[in-house]
């Protein structure tokens, strides 16, 4: 798996301070394999690797990260950016009824997604929604839309299998207009593979109803071929968005990357179950972790990068050098840094398995709780007390403990830890601060 591969590389790259032409090659080869394994199409992989390489070369490796870990971070950010960041809900900026056209291969999930979107638009956007099926080839498909539309709480416009799809669409649009619907969702016939006649038909449907959204529905489990499907639909229709279905399956969902790159339109939603409420706004960063097959570790690498606040450490070092006292405010900022690094330093050594990553997460959660408690105690002190902890006698301690919702002995424990660190700070006068942070973190 990618996790094994990367962790092997992470080990070999330990002790090197930078990502260089030399050490990046092996690493990128592994990333390339991982993306192919996740079914990202080859040309898309090639482009992607080139971009990552450019970003990675010469990148500074932050704090306690090895170049290998840093590269995982870069790969993850680039993946997230490629699949699109941010939220992009359905566009309804049109004269009502706004038409949404569903396109995609048979079995991709168009009919199911039509109902899911209807529910979403009713509940989240307070819209009056009508659905219609132009799938005249399979009467069962029309019935299926009727059933799921009812579940969604939307209205369904009957279609007659002997009518032409374009006529059905026009009739539904007319009905929607006359009955003041805000949205018309137009479900279309399945294509088993890209089929000229059906492509022509959906292009005509598009012309007839002028949709504000034309959504390409694609199965996350579709393999290398997703890129060709996407290309064909993009040529036939001006797509405005993608819905990635069946992300609850066990595929790594590399299709998302291919489809997004080929169509250039945002992935708006992800299908997360067969049920009518199984639709979520697409989360690119979460999906990136999944494509890489190491979501937990990626998340933790990100944490380290956030956690190691080099600037803050330097500022403190300056302050101590200038002879200022190390006070409880400084303590608080140090504590939160060390806790972050502590959970992580331990984790990084255990990197090989996802299990270890999960244990690392538990450590981090505990560390975070500790930090929050300490923060609570220090926040219950007056600014004067934080600068001059020697003022803290029994009465003040009781007041602080009550304010923070802890026991007096918790306040005492915190003050003990503070004094220990203050002692060390005095000895070091700020020199070697980063080093010490790392040691304590481990
Ligand atoms: P269509 O041919 O494109 O209209 O596809 P359907 O909407 O009929 O869906 C095909 C199958 O995929 C059905 O069994 C759906 O229940 C299932 N399906 C659709 N979306 C999802 C999803 O997000 N998760 C899961 N697990 N199943 C889905
Ligand atoms: Mg269908």
From TrEMBL:
Compartments, as annotated in UniProt: Cytoplasm
Can you tell me where the transmembrane regions are?
A: none
Enzyme Commission code(s) on record? 3.6.5.4
Name the major location. cytoplasm
Tell me if Ribonucleoprotein is a UniProt keyword of this record.
yes
Q: What are the GO cellular component annotations?
A: signal recognition particle
List, in alphabetical order, the Gene Ontology terms for molecular function in this entry: 7S RNA binding; GTP binding; GTPase activity
Broad enzyme group: hydrolase
GO BP, one example? SRP-dependent cotranslational protein targeting to membrane
UniProt cross-references to SUPFAM superfamilies, sorted A to Z: P-loop containing nucleoside triphosphate hydrolases (SSF52540), Signal peptide-binding domain (SSF47446)
Keywords attached to this entry: Cytoplasm, GTP-binding, Hydrolase, Nucleotide-binding, Ribonucleoprotein, RNA-binding, Signal recognition particle
Binding residues for GTP:
104-111, 187-191, 245-248
Q: What does this protein do?
A: Involved in targeting and insertion of nascent membrane proteins into the cytoplasmic membrane. Binds to the hydrophobic signal sequence of the ribosome-nascent chain (RNC) as it emerges from the ribosomes. The SRP-RNC complex is then targeted to the cytoplasmic membrane where it interacts with the SRP receptor FtsY. Interaction with FtsY leads to the transfer of the RNC complex to the Sec translocase for insertion into the membrane, the hydrolysis of GTP by both Ffh and FtsY, and the dissociation of the SRP-FtsY complex into the individual components.
Task: Describe the protein's quaternary organization and the partners it interacts with.
Answer: Part of the signal recognition particle protein translocation system, which is composed of SRP and FtsY. SRP is a ribonucleoprotein composed of Ffh and a 4.5S RNA molecule.
Q: NCBIfam families in the record, alphabetically?
A: ffh (TIGR00959)
* The record's note on its domains: Composed of three domains: the N-terminal N domain, which is responsible for interactions with the ribosome, the central G domain, which binds GTP, and the C-terminal M domain, which binds the RNA and the signal sequence of the RNC.
UniProt record similarity statement: Belongs to the GTP-binding SRP family. SRP54 subfamily.
Protein name (database record): Signal recognition particle protein
């Amino acid at each position: 798996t990618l996790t094994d591969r990367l962790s092997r590389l992470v080990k070999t790259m330990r002790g090197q301070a930078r990502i260089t032409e030399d050490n990046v090659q092996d690493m990128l080869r592994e990333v390339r394999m991982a993306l192919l394994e996740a079914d990202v199409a080859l040309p898309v992989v090639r482009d992607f690797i080139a971009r990552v390489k450019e970003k990675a070369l010469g990148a500074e490796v932050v704090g306690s990260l090895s170049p290998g870990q840093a590269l995982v971070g870069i790969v993850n950010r680039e993946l997230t950016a490629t699949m699109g960041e941010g939220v992009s809900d359905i566009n309804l900026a049109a004269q009502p009824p706004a038409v949404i056209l569903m396109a995609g291969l048979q079995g991709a999930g168009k009919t199911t997604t039509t109902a899911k979107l209807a529910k979403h638009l009713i509940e989240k956007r307070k819209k009056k929604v009508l659905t219609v099926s132009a799938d005249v080839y399979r009467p069962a498909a029309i019935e299926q839309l009727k059933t799921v539309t009812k579940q969604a709480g939307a209205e369904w416009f009957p279609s007659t299998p002997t009518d032409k799809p374009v006529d059905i669409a026009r009739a539904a649009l007319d009905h929607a207009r006359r009955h003041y619907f805000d949205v018309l969702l137009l479900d279309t016939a399945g294509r088993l593979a890209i089929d000229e006649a059906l492509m022509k038909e959906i292009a005509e449907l598009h012309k007839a109803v002028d949709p504000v959204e034309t959504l390409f529905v694609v199965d996350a489990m579709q393999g290398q071929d997703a890129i060709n499907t996407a290309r064909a639909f993009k040529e036939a229709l001006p797509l405005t968005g993608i819905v990635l279905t069946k992300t609850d399956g066990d595929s790594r969902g590399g299709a998302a990357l291919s489809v997004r790159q080929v169509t250039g339109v945002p992935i708006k939603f992800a299908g997360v179950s067969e049920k009518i409420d199984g639709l979520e706004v697409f989360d690119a960063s979460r999906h990136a972790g999944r494509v890489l097959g190491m979501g937990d570790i990626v998340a933790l690498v990100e944490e380290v990068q956030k956690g190691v606040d080099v600037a803050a450490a330097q500022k403190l070092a300056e302050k101590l050098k200038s002879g200022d006292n190390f006070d409880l405010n400084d303590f608080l900022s140090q504590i939160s840094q060390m806790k972050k690094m502590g959970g992580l330093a331990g984790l990084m050594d255990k990197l090989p398995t996802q299990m270890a990553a999960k244990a690392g997460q538990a450590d981090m959660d505990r560390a975070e709780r500790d930090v929050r408690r300490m923060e609570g105690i220090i926040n219950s002190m007056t600014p004067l007390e934080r600068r001059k902890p020697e003022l803290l006698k029994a009465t003040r301690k009781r007041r602080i403990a009550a304010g923070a919702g802890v026991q007096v002995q918790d306040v005492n424990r915190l003050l003990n830890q503070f004094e220990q660190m203050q002692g060390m700070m005095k000895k070091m006068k700020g020199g070697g601060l980063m080093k010490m942070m790392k040691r304590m973190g481990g």
